[in-house]
Amino acid sequence: MVKIIHQRKKCIGCGACAIACPKFFEIDKKDGLANLKNSKKIKNDFEIAIKDKNTNCAKKAVDICPVRIIKIRQ
Hints:
- This protein is about 20% helix and about 30% strand.
- By secondary structure, the chain is an alpha+beta fold.
- The radius of gyration is 11 Å and the shape is globular.
- The N and C termini lie close together (about 5 Å).
């Protein structure tokens, strides 16, 4: 298992993560920022544990985010 960590407070709402990885990211209709689907808030960030086989999609979101606020941790 790996964790996707999303620093939502720093999101600029470009939507790139939701396009690259709609399995885990969506744009909030209220504020226009990205949400990490089914995540839990841990301090200031949002986290979700995923199976290793699902990391390709998450890695695309990490790579495409212009403000580098998405991380993958083992």
